[in-house]
Design goal:
single chain; about 450 residues; alpha+beta; BirA Bifunctional Protein, domain 2; Rossmann fold; 3 domains; 7-stranded mixed beta sheet; 23 strands
């Protein structure tokens, strides 16, 4: 099996309706993508699985959906207004723009930018000194665009959890430890957005903030690290050999973090983060108390004391998770001259396609009835266009795990053929047992 290139994945995504470049008819809009029919379905399946793993499987974790626009003081308290910056460098010759840390290893301020070569044009001595660039998108609320009306599109979803955590705790009568899970859009004005949907300016985060008593944070951190890594193999079907933990060193830790680990996946462009597991201590809650003047301590009834909880954060990018799944599932089956998306059957956007062998002799009518009978329980398609082999291979690219073929024998004994995507093995089964058999096959792989 050959290494999969990112270009092949991008081509398949466009060809089969997973992901499109945003505003393509106008030449595209940089680092923003639209999700087509199959991409939308796959994205929803992933997010539903994540929310189930968080809230349905944990009695002390609940959901939240906070606003994209929040009070601007929230971002002052969190440090985003003052410190959410990347160092920016421009080439005065070709006008290319870079993050300074990508051209110079170490502290960009220590670099001799007059001696560093511009990668695109090759000139030396034309790079500007680094200047700080805030990654937040700024907007205005109301009809007047002045400083009093400034607001920001949230660069992360976590702060919406922190400012609501006491409201949630009181409403749901939660006791320490407890978690709050949220899926939502976030926005970052990235200087260099690249690698398809890996780094974009508009993305979705899946974050869970777990509030624990100080002193119990390290055991909680260890537990959530293990659970989150297992999610990728057990719930998404990703190859464990393509996953690893990477710890943040002393110089890499965020200002709020006591400990931080990245779950990395080996993408076609190398090992990169799909999720972070962080011990954020009590930094955020103390900051919000200082800036808002409101009490952010929790009252622990069992201990009969007030304190700031420590926070264990699990933060995953839905877009990155989807890209990891696509990269892991992409299979160039050169032996059979086909491209296959070996998606977890329970995640596959389409569970089965129903194909009449020919367009006559009553077979389309039988196939249509089978489709109608199945679609209340499964997402199924009807397909009669082209040869049966082309139909099979078309569905293989879409990740459809099963193809149901209606042939002349179906009219005689009420049986059909079920073809399995990866092995191409075929079984004969009666129509009266078809739904049950399909359900069993999918549930064999589901979480």
């Amino acid at each position: 099996m050959k290494e999969t290139s990112l270009d092949k994945i991008i081509s398949l995504c466009k060809r089969r309706g997973f992901i499109f470049q945003s505003s393509e008819i106008y030449g595209g809009f940089g680092a923003v993508y639209d999700y087509g029919p199959l991409g939308t379905s796959l994205k929803n399946a992933i997010s539903q699985r994540w929310m189930k793993a968080m809230t349905q499987m944990h009695e002390n974790v609940v959901g939240l959906d906070s606003g994209i626009l929040m009070h601007p003081k929230i971002w002052e308290a969190s440090g985003h207004v003052g410190a959410f910056n990347d160092p920016l460098v421009d080439c005065k010759h070709c006008n290319a723009r870079f993050r300074a840390d990508e051209l110079f290893e170490g502290n960009p301020d220590d670099g001799n930018w007059g001696e560093i070569q511009c990668p695109p044009c090759g000139t030396t001595g034309k790079l500007t000194e680094p200047r700080q660039f805030n990654l937040m998108f700024k907007t205005h609320v109301g009809p007047v665009e002045d400083d009093a009306a400034v607001a920001y599109l949230r660069p992360e979803t976590a702060q919406g959890i922190y400012v609501n955590y006491l409201l949630v705790q009181g409403a749901m009568r939660l006791k320490i430890p407890f978690g709050i899970a949220q899926i939502g859009k976030a926005f970052r004005n990235e200087i260099v957005a690249r690698n398809f949907i890996f780094r974009t300016r508009e993305f979705e985060q899946m974050e869970m903030q777990y509030f624990v008593k100080p002193g119990r944070d390290e055991e909680s951190m260890k537990s959530w690290k293990e659970e989150r890594l297992n999610f990728y193999t057990d719930k998404l079907g990703i190859d464990s050999a393509k996953l690893r933990f990477q710890q943040h060193g002393e110089g890499e830790l965020a200002h709020y973090a006591k400990e931080a680990w990245d779950i990395e996946y080996e993408f076609p462009f190398g090992w990169s983060e799909v999720e972070g597991v962080h011990n954020r201590t009590d930094f955020d809650l103390k900051q919000h108390q200082e800036h808002s003047g409101k009490n952010m301590q929790i009252f622990d009834q069992e201990a009969n004391e007030k304190y700031f909880p420590y926070i264990i954060e699990t933060s995953a990018g839905l877009n990155r998770m989807l890209l990891a799944i696509l990269a892991d599932a992409y299979w160039d089956d050169t032996e059979n001259d086909r491209i296959v998306l070996k998606l977890h059957p329970s995640l596959a956007p389409v569970k089965a396609v129903v194909c009449p062998l020919v367009k006559k002799e009553g077979l389309p009518e039988i196939a249509r009835k089978i489709t109608d009978d199945l679609k209340s329980n499964f997402k199924v398609l009807y397909d009669q266009a082209g040869s049966i082999g082309k139909r099979y291979y078309r569905q293989d690219e879409m990740g459809t795990p099963y193809c149901i073929t209606v042939d002349h024998q179906t009219s005689e004994d009420q049986t059909v053929t079920i073809r399995e995507r990866d092995s191409q093995a075929q079984d004969r089964i009666g129509l009266d047992k078809l739904s049950e058999a399909l359900s069993a096959k999918i549930n064999d792989f589901s979480a």
